[in-house]
Write a structure and sequence with these properties.
The protein is globular and about 65 Å long. By secondary structure, the protein is of the alpha/beta class. The strands form 2 sheets. An 8-stranded parallel sheet has the order 6-7-8-9-10-11-12-13. Strands 1, 2, 3, 4, 5, 14 and 15 form a 7-stranded mixed sheet that branches.
């Protein structure tokens, strides 16, 4: 069989089946950016390639996937961090005009090129740790022009760097000052005016909403999701982070790809997610940064068979970090996830949370997105902090 590239003498964590899909003395072969073989060298077909790399017994995993970020934004919120250290709550800061609205002002003042330039260092940090696919949300412009500019900037990141960029429209992130005390009118504007443009221009791969007491009600979220589904866009939701409004169950009724945060998720929500196949995306960075104490119901999610993804939630206010390796460590230490659950959370299940069936595992027919590691065992990727053992990153076979 003719192929472009072979990586041999590797230990594979294919993320297929149990025990990480571990294969010793493994080989990965790719043609035109697609895996044509991933398995034991001893049972590989006769392969001929232009380039052959000896991995010297290094581990290969699928390329890492960050399935929830707010990578594109203007400004920072270091001052609010100081306020939180002094005792102000997330709700206190938001109601005082800070929080998302303060980032809105900085984002509206930034041009598209400036948004791209400021996001690239954050993206580069993820890439340097083996990320090959990154989701990027809008939601800091909160008006017609700024939301479109954010989505265009996010798309352009995939031009500037060799990485898969998935975009999500999060216009229902916060209530802008132009619609103070009239959230219904703002949602109507999103449904009637902005969302159709986003869909027509192909700027978003999904639609998201912040369904919370300081965000949008379940009824308002339902209207937005109904409009999104009518336009053929899948949905996902920020829900049950600060309270339980049953936003996850609502999103599941719309066939949501994922429900994210989920600290206050209850059994009925879990059952709805399990029935719909909705992924639970956990965000331990925000949990840590906000010093939360209410843990997501990990045991309930496991028992119901709900897939668990992990993501950085990279954003300026509640999770200003750009390390999936750290997220795996926090997933293990804070949420007591296993090594396998953590690795699945940033590969196989993260792909599922984005509706991407073409990546996240090492299998014939999948994209050849790889991370090659200088570790003795995969547990090191979860166990260490402040340590980057990436040897090489492969995106689309390159």
């Amino acid at each position: 069989m003719r192929c472009d590239t072979i990586w041999r003498n590797a230990r594979l964590a294919t993320m297929v089946g149990g025990d990480l899909g571990h294969i010793d003395a493994g080989l990965v072969a790719a043609r035109d950016g697609i895996i044509v073989y991933a398995g034991a060298q001893a049972t590989a077909p006769d392969l001929d390639a232009d380039a052959v790399f000896d991995c010297n017994d290094r581990w290969i995993t699928p390329g890492l996937i960050d399935c929830h970020t707010h990578l594109v934004h203007g400004g920072d919120r270091a001052r609010e961090f100081e306020m939180r250290l002094a005792g102000a709550s997330y709700e206190d800061i938001a109601r005082a005009g800070g929080g998302i609205v303060s980032t809105m002002r900085a984002t509206r003042a930034a041009g598209e090129a400036e948004l791209v330039a400021s996001a690239l260092p954050r993206l580069d940090a993820l890439i340097a740790e083996g990320a090959t696919t990154v989701e990027v949300k809008s939601g800091y412009g909160l008006d017609h022009g700024s939301e479109l500019r954010m989505l265009r900037a996010a798309r352009h990141l995939g031009v500037e760097r060799r990485v898969g960029i998935v975009t999500t429209f999060l216009g229902a992130h916060a209530l802008p000052p132009e619609y103070a005390d009239d959230a219904d009118a703002y949602i109507q504007m999103l449904c009637d005016d902005l969302l159709p443009v986003v869909a027509a221009e192909g700027l978003a791969d999904a639609v998201d909403a912040f369904c919370e007491g300081i965000g949008f009600s379940p009824e308002q979220t339902d209207r937005l999701f109904t409009a999104a589904r009518r336009l053929g866009l899948p949905v996902k939701v920020h829900a049950e982070q600060l309270s339980n409004l049953h936003g996850a169950a609502l999103a599941a009724r719309h066939g949501a790809l994922s429900a994210d945060h989920l600290e206050y998720l209850d059994e009925a929500d879990i059952a709805a997610m399990a029935s719909a196949g909705t992924v639970a995306t956990l965000l331990p960075g925000a949990y840590y940064f906000m010093r939360e104490t209410k843990l997501p119901p990990i045991a309930g999610l496991r028992c119901a068979g709900v897939p668990i993804a992990l993501a950085t939630d990279c954003n300026p206010g509640t999770s200003p970090l750009t390390s999936l390796l750290l997220m795996m460590n926090m997933g293990a230490t804070l949420f007591r996830l296993t090594v396998e659950e953590c690795l699945a959370g940033v590969t196989r299940n993260a792909a599922r949370a984005l509706g991407l069936s073409d990546r996240g595992t090492l299998e014939t027919g999948k994209r050849c997105d790889l991370a090659i590691w200088n570790v003795e065992r995969p547990a090191e990727l979860v166990y260490r902090m402040g340590f980057n053992p990436l040897h090489a990153r492969v995106w689309s076979g390159q």
